[in-house]
Structures
1.
Amino acid sequence: MLEFAAKSNLWVWKEALKLKQKFEKNPPKKGFVLFETGYGPSGLPHIGTFGEVFRTTMVRQAFEKISDIPTKLICFSDDMDGLRKVPENLPNKEMLEANLGKPLTAIPDPFGTAESFGAHMNGRLKNFLDKFGFDYEFMSATEQYKSGAFDKTLLIALKKYDDIMKIMLPTLGEERQKTYSPFLPISPKTGRVLYVPMKSVNSDKGTITYISDEDGQEYELPVGGGNCKMQWKPDFGMRWAALEVDFEMYGKDHLVNEKIYSAICKTLGGTIPEQFNFELFLDEKGEKISKSKGNGISIEQWLEYGTQESLALFMFNSPQKAKKLHFDVIPQHIDDYIKFSENAQKETEDKLIDNPFWHINNGEIENLNLPVSFALLVNLASACNPDNKDILWSFITRYADGVTKEKSPYLDKLAELAVKYYYDFVKPTKQYHTPNEAEKKAVLDVRAKIETLPDSLTADEIQTQIFEIGKQNGYEQNLRDWFSLLYKVLLGQASGPRMGSFIKLYGIKETIALINEKLG
């Protein structure tokens, strides 16, 4: 497998091979390669958070296929960060407003279900990751700071205070330079995270001294034990050094800070990890998805209309390309996953290791045995307006001998999702076309032809007949317009499935009835 992986252009293998080469002769002293993902729980966990964990897991799995070195994945929550603004999509905004500036784990839960704001958000993230079966260790910044786990590295940072300032100050504006400090004390009086300059630092005592902007008093605090935290950019590099992180990926918006993270890590005596940056997701308007705005699709919303595997495929494909993340991308990713599963049954190893299906299933190849596509199921729903998935199954069982809900649970799930997707996204947009006389004649020719066809004809044979009718009615030079006409007249949409497949699935008698209905 290593031989094939070395020749691959797939992003997963490229990242795994970097780690393989890095540790081939000098394995990490801690005994394992550490993958990390970071999460800011200031808003509801969104689909991008899942994408970061999923993609990191893909690199981890690929590395495990070509190396014997053990691995570990940490999902790190920066839950000691101070809440800077109230997210638009959360309840109890007045309560949150009153607690601005405090660490997320020191603010009451606006939902009233957990011990704190941060704990609620962390719980939601962990529940979702567990649902997907990720193998990870969750780590809380609050617990790490307060337990003293970061104390050793924080004391090094205190000794290297001037060096860190030399890294940070050139990246700041003139006014910000006057007040900047890489250390943020937690106010003993109010519990707020304070953005104040340091009056002095004492590396021998391990303390910082500052003038509080709350009461004008001077305070001296130890840097350890949870009495302070680091600004987020130094904190990024500090965490790499403290935890000995070997691989981390982040969004393109972090790319401008990559040199800062790496320089801080190196200054604190750490080894700079391998890094990978991915493009950000866009909503239906082409705008960046934001936790505070709540735009785009949530994790739960995708899974209401699509499968877990389709979401995984969306994350796996082209991570360094900006992609629209909206409901209309779901059907295509369901069907693409089905195609990749079919390809996996016949591919040799050199091709198989580049198949997303293989990576999503960690090398396990399962035959889904799906006789119809998701798009075809949605269009079937468009024709018959089903109350539930059982209506679709009445057509499926007639179309494919021996296929049942019990034997094909994946298809049963797709049928359920197709009904939901049709009613929420297809039906509201339907616009049926009233054909002119020439168009009406062409559609009636279809009716006349299929009335003569035996039920034993295959979908491809029916498709050929529909082709010929289009050519006979003047669409020989543009058959796309011919099929678009059929879709608009019969289904109320500009595009659709192969008509042969649709008629075979829906039934000849049912198609004739549909034509009669739409032509009045």
Note: The radius of gyration is 29 Å.
2.
Amino acid sequence: MLFTSFGFILFLAILFPLYYLVPKRFQWMLLLAASYIFYAFAGWGCLIFIAVTTVTCWYAALRMDRLQKRQSSYLKARKEALTSEDKKAYKARVKKKKLGWFLAALLLNFGILAVLKYTNFAIVNINAISALFGGGQLQLVDLLLPMGISFYTFQTIGYVIDVYRGKYPPQESLPRFALFVSFFPQLVQGPISRYDDLAPHLLGEHPFDRRTVSFGLQRVLWGYFKKMVVADRLLTAVTAIIGAPETYGGIFVLIGMFLYALELYADFTGGIDITIGIANTLGVPVKENFIRPYFSKNIEEYWRRWHITMGTWFRDYIFYPVSVSKPMLAISKRSRALMGPELGKRVPVYLATLITWFATGIWHGASWNFIVWGLLNGVVIIISQECAPLYQRFHERFPKVGATFGWRLFQVVRTFWLMSALRSLDCYRDVPLTFSMVGTIFTRFSLTPLWDGSLLELGLGVGDWVVAGLGCLLMLGVSLRQRRGSVREQLERAPAAARYAVAFGLTFAVLVFGAYGVGYDASQFIYNQF
């Protein structure tokens, strides 16, 4: 059941009134039922996998907590009888058992994700190596890939890690925990929420609040506008360019990068707007996942603004643990001895950075283009960190340059095109082809296609280009207004006529200019594949 399907609109139209009509203590139960009904539309087989993840992580967290409580009780009851060595040995045994449950949950659930998502990728690479030596070929397997499996797996494993670290006690109720795992607005494309942020709101009681519901519906409408008016329209041109690389080289590669950046932003943030809006309408606040990323002045800032919950997940659960792990500390000690303290101390940090970005890349997709994309992001970040002293000396010598609008604009444009170039690996989905097509920018460059009518051969008419352009300008205007605070709160202070005009205008645009097409079947959100 896609967010842009008519069935989903009907689903929400039934859920919203029921949610505020049932007794408040039953609201979370209704949400749980609605979430499993929603997920069942993705296929009954998908329910098995999300149920396995839910039950195993819930049980492992409970077992770890029971071991910790038993340890506290045991040590308190035998405080005088045990020696310090006895206490140390007992704690070591308990820690080993906790680690066993922790690793069992991680290996089982990451194992499920790995088998379903990466088996064919492994087979393709094994076959490629085997072919070099004249060996036989393995057959690809047809495996079910449940919708949003990476999102709910990472969210649930984050909970297990937090319980293992003692950040908060586990949820005793399996149904209540199941709601955290399966909350339906997040299943399609995130955000990846933390238990202590989301669960108290999911399980709380929410009386009807006109302002909250109104704000939520406004956010949903804005998401539909970005998705259906802008993203799905630009998708046609992007598909035409990347689908015929032999025809569309040179400046078309730049045009494709630019349009894909706009399409991806409108698609992904549109979906997140719908997610957050639906959750808000139910009285459940959800973390923001984007904060004007295309205004970023460097790649590090970009990743603090783009898919924020994913970035913080990899930072907290991969980068930090890896960078302080025993092997990395040993590498740090050795590199300091070989390279000196200044350079040596950066080696483990950069290794942890590359490991984190490798994991980020493989999370995005089971193919080499995503792995290379992730590693290139890590390399660019490392290079920018190494160049930081040069930037500092430059600004010390020319202090006025950094304060100018022109310099800030240059940084924003530079970051946008750098990220667009890296993202071309996502477009062409083939590493050699991507580098070849980027090379044609320099070998086949010509501005003629901008005015010779070639743009009208990409599947979009003049009217489509106008609608898409106006939609992008509106997104830019809203982003600029957001720098002054919530646009919805600004609209609330505006005259009623202005509020109704905005609501009517967006609704009209979605209904009239939405990219439905003949035999309309809503395009999946790009991040559904994860």
Note: The chain has two domains: 26-205, 212-309+378-515.
3.
Amino acid sequence: MSNRPAAARVRDTAIDQAVGAKPLPSNADTQRACGLEVISLTKRFGDFTALDQVSLKVRAGSFHALLGENGAGKSTLVKCVVGYQQPEEGSILIADREQRLRSPREASMLGVGMVYQHFTLVPHMTVAENLIMSRIDTPQFINWRSARADLDAFMRRMPFRIPLNTPASSLAAGEKQKVEILRQLYLERRFLILDEPTSVLTPDEADEVLGMLREKAQRGDVTVLMITHKLREVKAFTDAVSVLRAGRYVGGGATADLRTEDLAELMVGEREPPASQARNHRAASETVLEISGLRARDDEGVPAVRDVSLTVKAGEIVGVVGVSGNGQKELVEVLAGQRHAEKTGIQVHGQPYKARRSEMIRHGVAILPEEPLRNACVPGMTVADNMAFRVFDRRPYSFLGWLRHGQRWKRAQELISAFGVRTPGASTPIGKLSGGNVQRAVLARELTGDVRLLIAANPVFGLDFKAVWEIHERLRQARDSGTAVLLISEDLDEVLQLSDRILVMYEGRIVHETTRDRAEVRVIGKHMAGDHG
């Protein structure tokens, strides 16, 4: 039974009725796990269909895994369930009652909670304050002694301890994730959604947390729906699996009845590698980039790049593929000089490389980062100024410390024409351009001049078909002209189409390597999902 005041329960019921969420029966069963069913759920964003008639069922008291490649529709589905987004078609049933969820508040009043990939704790509040202040029925004036006594009693029932008086900002990443999960249990959530919950946990911590949730599910205290890409954890802890691919439900069932290779095949499909485009054959020659034993940590101090070693030769594209969050972002940031490496072992043309601007110019290193408007441009500056970032202080664009605006303007006009950048003019702020044209402008800047190494990260994410084709063609042309290209992408088809060699990155390590000619989609998919056997 809930220990909430009767007045608070009456108030919550009134809110439920006012906003359209149907309140559940007010008896002891409301504190038990509840099930979920979605029926023919469809969600569109303009012309793009993110969910296409998805139907699946999560049994009350079960630990259920939701799998799929990046972009399969997993996040969109759970956002509909927690009320952040509303579907155009279909129904959502919670505890066998159809619900029309228009906000996360409505979902939380029905006992649905979510632990997100990114922490939501208030940094300067203590753990205790974060937990107590998150309750729906928190009064205007809090009896902290009583609230703390209730919290202490709750913590004694939990298998792990977190320092309640410590500010959230002082916790390690793994402790923050535990607090996020504890908060949902403290709030008496009966249906708990976890989005990649172990990405910041050590293997031992992951087993501890998931083991605790499995026990609570088996007792009927909570139902768990977990988005993950780690098949080891799926096989070890879950009861059932549902798989989405390209916005559609493609299969699932009892975990015990599904082999790891079955799950990997459901995620990537029984598809042949896409045909690679014809190339002007130029055999890969000397090694341009060599990485040996590289290590780096993420923003939370957790190891993200773990002893990565790879090479890229002139005249080849090496594709690194993996599910988001496996260290690719941190790898690119180290190579771009945006992140400190714990252990550096990077050489370009046989010389140590620290990603300084002088080294990039000397070795002909160009970077095409993910989200270029955020990571490679100043949105309020003009297209011409953004295109000049690599050369503004060099002749003929600068002389004796003075910038020569006419030369910079002339260069911008030439690049706009050569790369088909659609813009009202070179004086337009680059932030006013479409995503595809921002990408074309950055490519024009990075691929002009002496480019011997190009590092491209998710280069066509979110772009339309025409922009994708154009940018892919630019990458092929760079490769065919003798440039060494390191392509980091979460899109397996993109890597298969463009790469001469393919590496799979999982939990910060390179776990598989193959040539394009010998690539097998199912094998790559298994390694992306953590099955390296």
Note: Residues 61-83+100-261 form a domain with the Rossmann fold fold (CATH 3.40.50.300).
4.
Amino acid sequence: MFTFTVYDLLAKNLAQNAHHPALICGEVEISYLVLEQQVEKVAHFLHQQGVQRGDRIGIYLPKSIEEIIVTFAIARLGAVFVNIHYQWTLRQLTYIVQDCGITILFTDKYKADQIVNSVLWEQLDCLVVKDIEDKGLAHSKLISWSNLLLSPNSLVLPSGPIDVDLAALFYTSGSTGSPKGVMLTHYNIVQSARSVASYLNNTPADRVLGLLSMSFDYGMNQVTTMFLVGGTVVLQPVVMLAEIVKTVRTHHITGLAAVPPTWIQLVRYLQETNITLPSLRYITNSGGKIPQTILQTMPQAFPDVDIYLMYGLTEAFRSTYLPSTRFHEKMGAIGKAIPNTEVYVVDPQKGLCSPGEPGELLHRGSLISLGYWGQPELTQEKIKVSEHLKQLIGNEKVLFSGDLVKQDEDGILWFISRMDALIKSNSIRISPTEVEDIVYESEMVNDAIAFGVEDELLGQIVHIAVSLVENPIINIQALANYCRQNMPGYMIPREIHCWKGLMPRTASDKIDRPRVINTCLGQS
């Protein structure tokens, strides 16, 4: 069958892969056939509740098979799935429910107890609760998951969506103001799976670890790429390093996707324990830059494994990747445009940049989202016609990333900084990433966030927040000495803020940069 929609990614496997494992979670394994049958049950339930194409349905569940079932059931009807990170607070949940008009929400007993005692309860028509018995439900709006699966498939489901229909809202972490709902169509999601699976060479034999949250487009893509090719997703609810390694070895994982904070910890863990992961075929990184010292160690931690460094935005899922064959040659680069996408480096005044010249990355292609839910003005600022590209693509709209990059003589792209995060000190532009890289090279820190602080004389000065590695000879003074020995004078941090323990993470498991900075400056 042809694959046009998110649901098609699942349904296409019923012909030849019906009994192949689609999902594994702990001791539970579920085939494509059984998964599709349960998706149909949930889709019928939603249809009986009056769900129409375009309605927004919330998913507030921990990583689980049920989370995947609900996602595909919503897509089956042409409704819009809104996967909300399980660690987000009731306040954040309430904002999202109100922002996009969610009336049906799937959650578990723990979160349900909070919801029914909050102002959010009155705004919901139905709350489906996992891990609770029917006798524990005290209100008609509460429905148990087990009872839902017993409901008969008594109605004929309406025809499904087409590829241009809205499929999902991915809410950003809200690190810069309130969370924003990025609108992705079925076409966006399916095309992203095709593009990524093509350069990762995915096959039905692959088993990918579902480590990342489904509320993060990078996490969702682990499922969609596997379903596209008929592979298997092994869900990883427990994110402790020892448990991740155990799952990789037990279930013979071939593909592992993570973000820089996880790679830093995992590489160090593998070094300390001398554990090997022989089943791995490839690993991928997105969501930020891995420190150079960790990059240099990765081939030893993951021998004979293809390493893919990638760059993307929720607004366009993914823009670039560095082929694994060029990892050693271009270590730390974000690479080139992914298949079926074009990217450009553009200076706002000069236009297209020559090799070595910094400029903003602009993205063209079918992965660009529809923009932000309910925020047309913000959408128009981000997705618009580029005057500098008119001679090449006319009035076609492109995505303005807000990221400063440069291209080398081989056409490979290198990330410099977020344009709004550059530190400008005494007329010198300083990349926070460059400062952080040098600090990571000291091997004294687990996490590092560099930022600018206003200064009357210089405009801004460099500060850095760090969480130190537990070691009796490592302290702030030792790190300060290292910075003085390894940085030019203008880059040396005027103040080092010590953060106890690992820094807080966003829903996508990146370091929550604004929260860390605001705390250091006494603003939160």
Note: The CA atoms of residues 200 and 282 lie 8 Å apart.
